[in-house]
Amino acid sequence: MNSEAKSHYHILPLRTYITVAGALMVLTVVTVAVSFVNLGGWNAVTAVFIAAVKASLVALFFMHLKYDKKINAVVFLMAILFLAIFLSFTFFDILSRGDIYSEVEKSIKGKAVIYDTMPFDSKSAGHDDSLTVENNEP
Amino acid sequence: MNTMPEKHYLNEKRGWKSWLFTLDHKRIGILYLYGIMAAFLVGGVFAMLVRLELLHPGRDLMDAKTYNQFFTLHGAVMIFLFIIPSIPAALGNFVLPQMLGAKDVAFPKLNLASWYIYVVGALVAIYSIYAGGVDTGWTFYTPYSTTTSTSVVAMTLGAFILGFSSIFTGLNFIVTIHKMRAPGMTWFKMPLFIWGLYATAIIQVMATPVLGITLLLLIMERVLAVGIFDPAMGGDPVLFQHFFWFYSHPAVYIMILPGMGIISELIATFSQKKIFGYKAIAFSSLAIAFISFLVWGHHMFVSGQSQLASMIFSFLTFLVGIPSGIKVFNWVATMYKGIIRFDTPMLYALAFLFLFTIGGLTGIFLGTLATDVHLHDTYFVVAHFHYVMMGGTVMAFLGGIHFWWPKMWGRMFNKKWALLSWLLIFIGFNMTFFTQFILGTKGMPRRYYNYLDQYQPLHAFSSYGSWVLGLGFLIMAVYLFYSIKRGPVAGNNPWGSLTFEWKSSSPPPVANFETEPILKHGPYDYDKIIPERTYS
Hints:
The complex is a heterodimer. Chain A is mainly α. Chain A has 2 domains: 1-95; 97-138, no CATH class. In chain A, 63% of the residues lie in helices and 0% in strands. Chain A is flat. Chain B is mainly alpha-helical. Chain B has a single domain, classed as Cytochrome c oxidase-like, subunit I domain (Cytochrome C Oxidase, Chain A), CATH 1.20.210.10. Chain B has 16 helices and no strands. Chain B has helices at 16-20, 25-53, 64-100, 108-130, 144-147, 152-179, 192-224, 237-271, 278-291, 307-319, 321-335, 344-367, 369-375, 379-409, 415-441, 456-486. In chain B, helix 6 packs antiparallel against helix 7 (192-224) and helix 11 packs antiparallel against helix 12 (344-367). At the A-B interface, helix 4 of A face helix 7, helix 8 and helix 10 of B.
């Protein structure tokens, strides 16, 4: 009974908790710091990566996943995998939306990628050719 | 002569309390069955009204606004209230523990909770009809869904709540399958219906939370104007479609995979032959479940999605054809040189093979970028998914209902009426929906209230088909309800099947089996064992 109870209630030294908490704090600072640097498409990737590391730390140590049955880790990794699929495939679209527009042989990036034209200009909502040319001129 | 057992799960306890507080998976399955049948009736009536309105161009019956609400309600009710819970929650709940040789599912209270959540979700969805209806289509696309004055919030909240019911069922099934198989039942001795339910449960647990997030974001967008889908505030309306289809495309497989599982049972049983390619069928279910997460962008080819993304999604979409093809060929090969009996469930299985193949192959047209530009948002799409969903899932569901009906109630339905009803449904279905393939290729857009005169004959033919279809279902409802009390006693194993659930009495006792069953042979060992049939 005693040995079974031990395997059920794994107790971590306080040091580990404090170290992990410290790491989480540092990563939070890193997240904020990185947000001042414009990495273009990598902005989101960096932010999500740091968030994933933090979530993993919480799951591994605070939630004892590291000391649990391996199958639980597999379940956790599955969830991460599917989230990664969702985000990466969505970014296939969002990051390359203006790249090719072979019908008119020019980029429509200036319009289609909404992040570049903030605040949104109601005139540029439609695919108006005159505006496209204007936006593409360096 | 067959006799009914004296004590069984239907008469062990009586009164409405014994039903509403039951933890018996069989009774919960029956409760679900009533729920989804009511939803099917409501959704079906909406469909008939939509088809009636489309009999002629212009106004027949209702104005355009009402029409928009009716097709939205038809879609939302059929998807969220009927087809998603239909096979897993109703038939799966009833059959799964029996097939595994278990007394119940792993978490009986969670199981009952999932039914109550289903009812609450359904009530919230119904409330949205009183609160002004919804006219966005069941897909709730932004920006329309964030700007329309109809009660989108109530309807999406309903779908949000229903999602939890779906997750609970999936979770319960995964644990039950892992932990509660009878002694001797290894993974590859499980009936294929279980594999289908297992693959479904994984999708339910993995994908449904994303629907929850999506609908919650939509509600936040409407109520708090956070701007995640609004370009004026830096958002992106196409992002909604990514969110929505990341759930809703796998959800299509939540609908079809358990249906495929039923078809495997039916074809093996009614061909009295070992299933051809057991492992191939089992793994193709998992393959479909996995690929289903990688193809959602094929709903968005003309949404303004980037060409790179469209190419990737189009390519991946074709992969779905491989496991689906494996299944179809294995079923056909199972029938080869079998002793085929054309009982009612088998008729539905054959209808499934025929209709699902048409539905699947027309999906290839739509997955191809160049043809999709022309066919997108036309009746071709409507016909395609009705062939898959109704010709596939509903046919499998009806096959399953007829197959396990004598197990549920201990009595057999009238097979002559069943044959007539099957014939009407099969003919009516093809009249209704094959016509729509032609309408679509001729350019008739979906969801339109009015149309050009040239489309009228085909629209009228499609509407006539819906009446044949409706008549078929009406006959079915009558003979099925009649048989519950007055049908002839069916016996324990009326179809001569080898899976576990037929070893107990019909209807089964509360604990499913008198003694703990031990697996002595595989579920499809018809080459070694000739099962006794107790009804002919």
